[in-house]
UniProtKB/TrEMBL annotation:
Domain of life: Bacteria
The entry's keywords: Methyltransferase, Transferase
Record-level Gene Ontology MF annotations: 16S rRNA (guanine(966)-N(2))-methyltransferase activity
Cited SUPFAM superfamilies: S-adenosyl-L-methionine-dependent methyltransferases
One Pfam entry name: Cons_hypoth95
UniProt-recorded name of the protein: 16S rRNA (Guanine(966)-N(2))-methyltransferase RsmD
EC number assigned by the record: 2.1.1.171
């Protein structure tokens, strides 16, 4: 199976229901919200599936992409898709394994844009967002886009993060999260 992304590029996807590619109109909407901030950014794709969102980020000028996925079958497709669209000095890193352990391995790095799209029935939402905050993976002006079912996301407050906005597309919602004002003030004091 295949799908098209930015620039009319064709990507492969896994057959069956092991991964659920982000719908074309949701992908387009996310990149419209982030228009002007992808070029030159550091991108983290959590539960990358076929790497579609990472490929879009590369096509739109991200300089660094890190894609995380647990499925061994998906890794080969992610690698092929990202190598197909990668240009020049863009860097791509593909990490396999337990998401929580892999997030800890990224401690000390920061990302400008993150896309988090786990299986909708997953219990990963809260622990992953808490880990992103704990390991300080989000750059000061960074944002996380969390894809979820419209009626199924409850995020317990995380002191350093706040919900910035939500966009609804049929049964899918994307919640955009950034650093809280208090966290940003603390960062300014450190500088």
């Amino acid at each position: 199976m295949s799908l098209r992304i930015y620039g009319n590029r064709l990507l492969k996807t896994l057959s069956g229901e092991q991964t659920r590619p982000t719908a074309a109109r949701v992908r387009e909407a996310v990149f419209n919200v982030w228009q002007g901030s992808i070029s030159g950014c550091r991108w983290l794709d959590l539960c990358a599936g076929a790497g579609t969102m990472s490929a879009e980020a590369l096509c739109r000028g991200a300089v660094e992409v890190v894609a995380m996925e647990q499925s061994p079958r998906a890794l080969a497709i992610i690698r092929e898709n990202l190598q197909r669209v990668k240009q020049g000095d863009q860097t791509v890193e593909i990490l396999r394994g337990d998401l929580m352990a892999r997030l800890k391995s990224l401690q000390g790095r920061q990302f400008d844009r993150m896309y988090f799209d786990p299986p909708y029935a997953s219990s990963l939402y809260q622990p992953v967002l808490a880990a992103i905050a704990q390991y300080e993976l989000l750059a000061p002006d960074g944002e996380i886009a969390v894809e979820h079912r419209r009626d199924r996301l409850t995020i317990e407050p995380i002191p350093t993060l706040e919900i910035l906005r939500e966009r609804r597309y049929s049964n899918t919602t994307v919640t955009f999260i950034g650093l809280s004002d208090e966290s940003l003030r603390e960062l300014q004091k450190i500088k």
